[in-house]
Amino acid sequence: MVWLNDQQKIGVGLVSIGSLFLILGIILFFDAALLALGNVLFTSGITLLIGPQKTFYFFARKQKIRGSICFFTGMILVFCRWTFVGMLVEMFGFLNLFGDFFPVILNFLRQLPFIGPLLNAPGVRAVLDRLAGSRTSAV
């Protein structure tokens, strides 16, 4: 089991609350205030979760620079109240930045009691594996 220090626990909370605000902002017809607050909380939560130096290196890596530019440009557009366009640009950047984690998240969700059997159903499994980019092992 992985133990988190106090700073990382706060980071997990900020990422969770930021994600909740982003979802609520989208549900409430792209409410600029909720989206902006969600962006700030999500980004600061990631910084607290993995540390400032690792966060900088994550966003500044050569293969992630296009995603980083789109993600932060989308945040700026949301702050300027261009919420729909900003969220589209930000989602493109988010997928480029965090797309590598989707297979890991999908495998974790498949281990959960109620969600796992739904995600392991034959038709659903094939579609999600294709969307997440999961690969089957050759062994």
From TrEMBL:
InterPro entries, per the entry: Got1, Vesicle_transpt_Got1/SFT2
Subcellular location: Golgi apparatus membrane
Topology term for the membrane: Multi-pass membrane protein
Key words, A-Z: Golgi apparatus, Membrane, Transmembrane, Transmembrane helix
GO cellular component: COPII-coated ER to Golgi transport vesicle; cytosol; endoplasmic reticulum; Golgi cis cisterna; Golgi membrane
Positions of transmembrane segments: 12-30, 36-53, 65-85
One of the Pfam families matching this protein, by short name: Got1
GO BP annotations listed: endoplasmic reticulum to Golgi vesicle-mediated transport; retrograde transport, endosome to Golgi
The UniProt record lists the keyword Transmembrane: yes
Primary residence: Golgi
Family statement drawn from the similarity comment of this UniProt entry: Belongs to the GOT1 family.
Protein name (record): Got1-domain-containing protein
Protein's organism: Pseudomicrostroma glucosiphilum
